[in-house]
Amino acid sequence: MASSTLFHILSSLFIFCLASSFSYAAYPNNNQVSLTSTAYLPKLQAEKLIRGLNLFPKSSVNTAAAGDHASVSAPKLVEKQLSLNPLGDPGPSVQEFGHHAGYYTLPHSQSARMFYFFFESRNNKSDPVVIWLTGGPGCSSELALFYENGPFHIANNLSLVWNDYGWDKASNLLFVDQPTGTGFSYTSDKDDIRHDEEGVSNDLYDFLQAFFAEHPQYAKNDFYITGESYAGHYIPAFASRVHKGNKEKQGIHINLKGFAIGNGLTDPAIQYKEYTEYALNMRLIKQSDYESINKLIPTCEHAIKTCESDGGDACSSSYAVCNSIFNKILGIAGDVNYYDIRKKCEGDLCYDFSNMERFLNEKSVREALGVGDIDFVSCSSTVYEAMLMDWMRNFEVGIPTLLEDGIRVLIYAGEYDLICNWLGNSKWVHAMEWSGQKDFGAAATVPFKVDGAETGQIKSHGPLTFLKVSFCLFLEFMMLVIWFPWISLKLRYKCSRAGCKGNLP
To answer: Biological process (GO) annotations (predicted)?
Structure first.
């Protein structure tokens, strides 16, 4: 087995998912939620959760003085070929692969620049173009690039090694640092920090238009949107924006075929209600705890409705009220790893991503990427806080239209993930109203097998698929194999946090 298979990809990391996990101590033991405690303040929570991953970005958001970066006066999209040199043999020589990094000047902003990576397929340039969106909100795409499904991983000595299961083996792969202020994306104007999915989606759509104008040879390829966690908000909104642009014949036609959400936050009103049910089923809490915590659910439901109707402070309040459900569960469960409840976190750390920050702060790497002195903000607490108005909103509402028009949708989640649990995701998928709802509900749930071994359960009707990942035991987990017809090479995750032993390098 190749050495790179020692790297176990976290298939559905992030960070909606980290959102409330460090904050349960901020709440009193009764059923009242304190909105004035400084321990509750979302930005402080975000900073604590970032440190909990052994990440220490110098800044809370990526800003720069106007004119500080070379791309300020350059064309809208500035791109350079990467000269990174991973160890090992990926097959053809690295010179045959087009690895690029660049900045795009966002047109509907004061001075925002969006940073991205583009990796041409190791197989065939006619393979689909796939964009990956990491959650947070406010965590960089480099987390997925180097620890999940990118072309290579970072070894402990900070060298790069090829990922035998990178998605670039069967797709032309885009990673984007978004929203503005995340990763290497930056601005010199605080008004460019986004607060809702409309701003996020328009920026991504503008980026795609510029990308395909720069690379017209890929515009005809099938296009898929993928991501995890808070991308359960990003992805449906972005897919709807692309679909609208196509229908209205805006700019370049983008050949959208489908999207996939891994362990996502999409419909909070349904998903938050399922925390107690999941926790009881998995024996994290007792029946008496279940009954006590469930008393918070009506207040959470009312808060979400108020957020949807009133917006503003009502959305901040709904965030606090509803997250108290998870916090109380975590207070009882103790130091359980909320991404894999079969494990305990060692100290404050469930995972350690510090090698990424060390690698990206090396002078030679910065020169290769063309980022100059721009800070790298692995996760932005400022972006996290800015998106609170968006948190409790339901983004399932845009999916039925996409399904009716034949856009393929995959929702997948791991059995042992608490904070973005499969039960909540399954419930909103089944509750979604569309023409195929009844037939989807009646469809059989069948085993999902990898190399003959059952690794989960899958259910499909028409363009909609739900996959519960339950077991893989160091088998290569072939995520999306039967969903994306273009994956003849069987895109593989080594193992997901959903059910494998040992999730980290």
So the answer is: proteolysis
More confident residue, 129 or 450: 129
Other Cβ atoms within 10 Å of 50 Cβ, number: 26
Neighbours of 112 (CB within 10 A): 26
- pLDDT of residue 354 exceeding 80, the answer is yes
Q: 390: which DSSP letter?
A: H
Q: Which residue has the higher pLDDT, 403 or 77?
A: 403
**Residue 342 structure tokens:** 């079969």
d(CA 429, CA 422): 11
Give residue 96's pLDDT band: very low, low, confident or very high (50, 70, 90): low
Kindly list the structural domains of the chain, giving each domain's residue range(s) and its CATH number in brackets, ordered by start. Answer: 57-283+353-488 (3.40.50.1820)
| pLDDT tens digits, 241-288 | 999 999 999 999 999 999 999 999 999 999 999 999 999 999 999 999
**398: DSSP letter:** T
Check residue 396 and give left, alpha or beta (phi > 0: left; psi -120 to 50: alpha).
alpha
> Rounded to an integer, what distance in angstroms lies between the CA atom of residue 190 and that of residue 110?
9
b (16+ CB within 10 A) / e for 360-371: beeeebbebbbb
Q: What b/e readout covers 259-291, taking b as 16+ CB neighbours within 10 angstroms?
A: bbbbbbbbbbbbbbbbbbebbbebebbeeebbe
Amino acid at 472: C
Q: For the chain, how many helices (H) and strands (E)?
A: 16, 13
Nearest Cα residue to 399 out of 175, 281, 239: 239
